[in-house]
Each structure stands twice: as C-alpha cells, then as structure tokens.
Description:
Number of strands of chain B: 4
Structural class of chain A: alpha/beta
Oligomer: heterotrimer
Radius of gyration of chain A: 19 Å
Strand content of chain B: 5-15%
Order of helices and strands of chain A: HEHEHEEEHHEEEEEEEHH
Strand content of chain A: 15-25%
Helix content of chain B: 40-55%
Amino acid sequence: MNExxxxxxxEQTKRMIRRAILKGLAVPGYQVPFASREMPMPYGWxxxxxxxxxxxxxxxxxxxxxxxxxxxxxxxxxxxxxFENTAGVETTEETEKATIIQTRHRIPEAKLREDQIxxxxxxxxxxxxxLEPRETETRxxxxxxxxGLMHVKLYEDISQHGAISTAYAYPVKxxxxxxxxxxxxxxxxxxxxxxxxIQLFGAGREQRIYAVPPHTKVVxxxxxxxxxxxxxxxxxxxxxxSDDSYLDEVIMxxxxxxxxxxxxxxxxxxxxxxxxxxxxxEENAA
Amino acid sequence: MYVAVKGGxxxxxxxxxxxxxxxxxxxxxxxxxxxQIREQLSLAVNRVMAEGSLxxxxxxxxxxxxxRGDLIEAIFLIRAYRTTLPxxxxxxxxxxxxxxxxxxxxxxxxxxxxxxxxGPTFDYTHRLLDFKLAAEGEVPVAPTLQPRTEATxxxxxxxxxxxxIQDEPASDATPGDLTREPMEFPSNRPLRLQSLTRGDExxxxxxxxxxxxxxxRNHAFVGELRIGKLAVEMDIxxxxxxxxxxxxxxTECETVNQFKGSKTExxxxxxxxxxxxxxxxxxxxxxxxxxxxxxxxxxxxxNLGAPAQDEEFVxxxxxxxxxxxFLEHIKLPxxxxxxxxxxxxxxxxxxxxxxxxPKEAAE
Amino acid sequence: xxxxxxxxxxxQNAPVQAAHAxxxxxxxxxxxxxxxxxxxxxxxxxxxxxxxxLLLTLCDPETxxxxxxxxxxxxVREWLTFHTGAPLAQAADADFAVGRWAELGSxxxxxxxxxxxxxxxATLIVECDExxxxxxxxxxxxxxxxxxxxxxxxxxxxxxxxxYPLGCDFFFxxxxxxxxxxxxxxxxxxx
Lengths: 286, 363, 191
C-alpha cells in the first residue's frame, strides 16, 4: 500500500491527534475532543484505537493487537494486518516483546513495563452517558466535578441487588479529579490501571481521546461498606492452571460441559511452555 | 478435547474470496460496467455522492459495484477514500440562482419568472411495473425545447420585498467544517446543514416526517424545489480571479413555513433549507423540514421536546456510517464482557437464593 | 545554488522524524522530570533544535504560534511559516508559545482552557540555558514517587498547577534536549 503515508494517516491528521494525546496526558482522565477521521474500517471496530496507534507508532516499534485478550480473534488479526501493510512495523503476539499494544476489552495479565504503551479501543468514552445521554449535560458534570449521579446509580444497585451490578467498563476516578470509563475491560482488570506504562484511549466515532500517564492514581468507585472487588470465575485455567488470570468460559459439548481458559492467550501459552499444567492440559498436549 | 479457535487470518482471506465471487454473481451473466451503473442507476449514484460527501459519479458507481448495491457500504467506501484526499483549496460558494434548471417547481405560486418545469420526475408516473423494461429498455427520444439562458430567480426573493418572509442575512464568515473539527454542542446552522446534507436519507426523511405528523410541526410549503447543474468556481491567488473547476448537479429546496410570531419575532414566513448533491429530491425536502425544526431557538419558538427539534439528538444520529459501524460492532466478540456479566448474574442469583432460603425454612 | 536559510532545516523524512519526535515529546509529557533528545530539524538561530523539532511536529495551519522575544526574528518567522504554515499570534490567542522564560511574560496572559474544555489551553515551549534533573521536586501523575527538575520559576509554575484542571502545559528545551511539565504536576522546593 505504497500510495498511503506511513501508518496510513496523513501528517496533518497525526499532528491533530498528537496534540490531543499531549493534552490528554496533561489532564489525566479528561476526554479531549478530536476530529476523528473516517478510517477504512467501520466505526465501533477500533477506529479510535487505530488512529491513536497510527499517530504514536514509529517504524522501529513492535506492535501487538489483542481483542478479548487474544491475538487471534478476527478483528485483532484484521487490525494487525492493517498496520503491517501501512506502517511496515513488526508485530508480535508476545506481550513481553511489544512496544505498543492495541487492545479491545482486556489488559494483558503480564505486568506492563515503563517502555511500553497500551492503546485502548473505546466504544463509549463517557462514563456518565448511560445516566445522562446529553453531551451538553455530562460535560457540565465533569466541569463541576459533579459525580453524584454515578454514586446514586451504584448505590441503587446495592439496594436492589445487594451488590454493584457493573461487571465491565467499571468507572474509575483518575488522579482524584475525573471519572473515566476504562473501556469495556472486565472489572477484574481495573486494579491494573495503575501501571508503569503509558495508557492511551481512543474513541473514533465519539471523537474523544484520553490518557492515563504511568504511576497515576486510578480508583474504582465504591463505598466504604461495599468496597470494589475485582472478580473472575472461581476456577483455575484448565490449560495452564493459573488461578489468578481472567478466564473465558468455553462450552465443550452438547451436554453443556464447560472449561475455563485464560482469555489472555499469550499469557496462557507462555505458562504452558514453562511447564504449568491445568486440569485438561494432558488431552490438549496432542 | 478443546482446540482453541485459530487461523483467523486464513478465515478472513477465505471470506474475502467468497465475497468477491458472490459480488460477481453467476459468471455467465454479463458483468456490470461502471458506466452502466453511472448512467442507469444514477439516483443511487447521487445518493452515494451526497452521503459520501464526494462529487464523483464514476467513483460512486465503482463503490456501488464493489458494495454489491449496498448503498451504505458504498457510502462508507467513498467516505474512507475521501478522507485520504489532500485539500488543495476551497471553492467559492455556488450561486444556485444561476443554476441551469432541469426541474424547478413551486408549491406556493402558480407561476413565477422562470416558470414551473417538471423535468425528469417520477411524480406523475403511475407506479405500475413496466414489464417492457424486463425485455429491453430502449426508449423513444423525449421532446426538447430551447432551454432558458437567463438566470432563474429564487421564489423566496419575491416575498422579500414585502418583508413578509424572514431575512437570511448574508455572511462572509467561514463556516466550520464537520469533517475537520470535532462536533460540539450547541452547534450552529452551517454545521447542522452539513450534517443533514450528508446524513442518512432514511433518518432525515423519518425526522422530517415526524414534524409533519405533529412532533414540532412547522407547516412547510415547498416554496421552491430546483434541480440542475452549476459551475463550481475557485479563486486562484496567482491569477487574481476565479476559474471554473467543474460542474456539479445539485438539488435545492427552500420551504416557506408558517410562523405566528414569537416573543422576539413579528409574524412572518420563515424558511427551511436543503441542498444536496445530485438529483436528491426527497432528501433535500426532508433536509429543509428538519433544518426548520432545528431553528426553534433562533426564532424564539417553544421547545416542544420533539425529536426533530433536538439538535444533539439529530446530529448525533444522522450519520449512517457512524450508526452502522456501531450497530454492527456488537457482532464482534464480547466474550470478556459477557463472561463478567455471567459471573455477576450467577453471584447475584446465589445471594438472592441464600436470602430466600432461610426465609422459607422459617415459614 | 545557495538555498535560502529559512527554507532549509525542515524534516527530511517527515513521517518518520515526526514520529520519533512525537514519541520523545509524549514520553516527557507523560513522565514529568524525564529528559529526552529531540532531533530532526535545523532551525535558524536562536531557536534550539529541540524547540524547532517540537514546532515541526505539533504545529500546522490549525495552530496559532506566539514567538516571544529574541526568537521572534525574520528568519524564525519565515522558517516556521514555510515549514508549518502556522499562523503567528499574540500570547493571549496562542496554542503554542516559544521563547525564553523571561520573554514569554506573565503566565496570566496565556489561555488556560475552560472548565468544560480544559484542553483549550496554551502549550509553552521554554528555551532554557540548562536542563537538569535537579531543582524543584515534582510529584503527581507520571511520576513514581518524586522526580527532580530544574524549573525557571517555581512560584509561577506552582500557581499554574493550582489552577488544575485548567492551566498551561510546558516543554523545556535546551539544545537538542527536552523535558516537560504538565499542569497536573505538583511542585515543591527541593529540601
């Protein structure tokens, strides 16, 4: 695809995105409006993440793309291919080797390093959107740091269900100021949002970019008597035996038998390679 | 035994190969040419140009062919191509009163300078399937007249003299650009019009229809509807004057709307405006109605809470490329989110059962 | 043939050089106190390589640039206009401002954003004689524990940080090196 610029976007578009990223880093958790471009893939399929990655990539980078924690899900494959073609960068499935990781819905299990960048694809960047559909209103709420509505919602959950009924895209407060949507990661991943790597969030259709610098305080909203809990299926991985990784539930047969496997495919593979075994590992060894 | 789903890349390649085959259809049937689509499916081409925001009939025809006739998919192809084009400059505003009209009608005056010209319209066709077309489409040559050479003035100009229609003050301000700046609310009329002209025809039509049925009714008459070709001019600084860079076909609709007056405005007629690439009559009328509904604030009207009055609602949902992308993204894997919900519902059920059980035992 | 000096000194390979420069700029903005190299441009004197490279990386016809004091020369203006197309502006309207600290003037002149759009604030590129990880103590987002950085005017920058989430953001440039100070950083005198 030689007729396109490095990493597809033209330089002016990249500058516009880069300026938004810098402002996002300067005001952690605040959603910076940006003039999202139409990409050759549909809105809602990672156009925000792709634009942020494209503006961030250097030719020397090694890119990893995951969707649901896995490198081989079709949309991850498609986005990886896009950057192989348009930026000519190396790609990897190994979290360890990646310098930039574009993700949808997961944070890798392996601890990310200082020299890594993680780019999240975000469908609805506004954490207050489902409580208040109007941008004019939610923008005001952020400006006044008026997050009562969110607490009321969470508290209503507790009074109705005895627990907060948000399982993913669980809202966080960043650096004691902005309430932020961490993208639809399971709340299991929320504690990892305080990390050493730079975190960038791109919402293409909604035209927003936001960021969390390394070592930034990120607190999942909760109540003293109902503290936040990072939950996962109460099983070890049936392939690698890990008991502290997020699991996918897989239906194995017509009788409805289930197995649980790491959603982070690279994490699971590297554990198995190191000799760890889960309940069904023997069968799978073949 | 469990085998993880692998080979996404191969699956994608195969899917693309199959898609290409399906697009072509039966190989013993002659293949459509771009010229055939451009000439014989011209209204589809017009819609793709209008909502794709790119005036290029050949590219729109190509997109329709590639998209197997799915016009939203074709619009998407055009939009994605359009964003890669460099901006070499900006044309001057087109002067629609200089349009060479193929069609020009007014519902407000029986006759006016320039006359009523029906043009190539479906309006008075009886919607009977023409089985002759199934065999062959050769048609007799339509009768022709000498076209007008002088400019055709706008109907609303004739009302202006009486001060009975709201004035639209001219402005040399550079309007914002929907495609280069993030949308911000409250917006303004130039951005609203940009959003509507490239908005989904079905969405804009539905919104306009809702105003007619009483959701912020604005009593619209088609003051004028005109379709025709216009020269596009661009200033060339090196030359010091403007030159023609091409010709485009446009549909323009100006509605005249009843207006009782408000706290701030005397009773007079008001206007809605629609301007769309190509012959896009339905779209331009719908656009004018929605434009008028969205002007409630500027005219000091009441907000009736109608969807068509709600700028943020209309502008946020008019774009079919945004809408279809987000709608269709829910077919992407959501294992992780679903799994977290699954765990949560199981947990809540467990807790609820525990709450219910001791009660039952006590009874 | 002798090229006009202000026409030379741009990026030779803009997509790649701008990508490198942006990563350095992003890294220092994300990690206040860190210093990185910024190369790629050869701007006319007295503009530093780092400041010139930042301008080429971030500015274009959509950004207003204020050139303060001694760097506001014909050569710098022509160079900037030729390579970026950025319109020149007064301090109060600027998206980016470049100059030495004393010449940039009162911070109160610059845009600090609005409550609803705190991103609409100026970014100041401060040309410095020295750039070292000693002086003020920094803490906050991007910083593990504390970091040290020499700052030209601690009280003024503390006052800027107190405006959070409003305020200006800063790059400090010296030769081909750059550090940054976002408004989110808390500043104290090193003890």
